[in-house]
Amino acid sequence: MKNIKNRMLLKLYFLASISILLFASCSDDSGDSAGKLAVTGISRSVIDDPLVEGDRQVDVATDIINAGNYYIIRGSGFATLKSISFNGMESYFNPTMVTDNAIVVLVDQKTPYYNEMDEMKIVTNIGTLNYKVAIRPPSPNITGFPINPNPGDIITITGEYFLHPVVNFGETAVEPISSTLTEIKVQVPNNIQYKSLSITNVSGTTVAGQSLGSAIYDDAYTSLMSYNGLWRPATNHYDIAYDKDSSQGTKCINWTSGPDWDGLYIGIDKSKVDLSKYKAIRINIKGQKAGSISAIINGNYGATYALKFGTSWTYLEIPISSVGSPTELTEVTFQETGGFGGNNLFIDDIGLVLK
Q1: What is the CATH code of the structural domain delimited by 215-354?
Q2: Does pLDDT of 56 surpass 80?
Q3: Of 334, 311, 336, whose CA–CA distance to 257 is shortest?
Q4: Which of 13, 16, 104, 330 is the most buried (most CB within 10 A)?
């Protein structure tokens, strides 16, 4: 299975693909912006099933538009493009990615798709074109699920665009007990440790960013935690079930750090963590003020790792190789290091990242 956490590499691949496709489109540009307004073909810029190695394709002809993806519209008369919409909702386009013969457009993720007219509308200075094309939802968006379930548990997966969903635990497909567009109930199969949850709908597949069994904190501390607390509880506020915000699931840790670089520590049951399977520790964090914390692993203060964040949720990883390359995990400590008299920190989805 692909390592879907290599987000930067995928971004570079995507940008390189768009540049190649735009160059190809420009090379065919006749420059006749007064020509007939017409669509001759539609291509999806990138197709890449996250469950299949080596299947990545670019510029693939299609007669279906899946919201939330980039497409290349080919034809003529596009040079003076004013707007492009799908089922009545306008989508963003970069004017530098428009020629007379091609439009590269990101179809808005919120484009309506259910019982709609299946229509693309192109408006230019030389006219308006209504073009019939099937409009479908984006690939699934997974917003929450129990990361450390037990085999046999009936769990709820939340998200969006669960249209005719197929749920996989690793390579094991499981029939949903029930499903709506935003929620799936499913029974957990056996042998899920070190595997990933994925959902496929009519438009594509999405793999959850957290591998099964990897959570240290997921709405609450999991069984991987053996103890937790604060360096100076008298001067700190510590709510481990804050329910007014979260990056995953429904709750997070709300830690108000005191003015003297206080710390939050989590003891780990090392008998439950095979650290050889993992490459990093993950955390989602934001602050009332943009700031920083230092991560200290197993009490090794000679190999701290700095993490910077803003006032919105930020996903960060602490590479095991950057904190002394320990072979076992016994404690994770976060020390507030903003340097401006403490901070109100929100922490969620603490866990481990598979190699």
Answers
A1: 2.60.120.430
A2: no
A3: 336
A4: 104
State the DSSP string of 140-151. Answer: PEEEE--SSPPT
Residue bearing tokens 């914390």:
293
Contact 7, 37 (CB under 8 A): no
Task: Tell me the torsion sign for CA atoms 220, 225, 231, 234.
Answer: positive
pTM given for the model: 0.78
CATH fold of 141-209, please?
Immunoglobulin-like (2.60.40)
pLDDT at 282 over 70: yes
Q: What percent of the chain has pLDDT over 70?
A: 89
DSSP readout, 301-326?
Answer: GGG-EEEEE-SS-EEEEEEGGGTT--
Q: In this structure, is the dihedral angle defined by the CA atoms of residues 312, 334, 344 and 212, taken in order, positive or negative?
A: positive
3-state secondary structure of 230: strand
Type of residue numbered 169:
F
Both tokens of 135, joined, read 């409009």
C-alpha 41/C-alpha 38 separation (Å) is 9
Burial class of residue 263 in the structure, from the number of CB atoms within 10 Å of its CB (0-12 exposed, 13-18 middle, 19+ buried): buried
How many angstroms separate the Cα of 150 from the Cα of each of 13, 153, 177, 191, 213?
37, 6, 17, 10, 9
The architecture that CATH gives domain 7-136 is Sandwich (2.60)
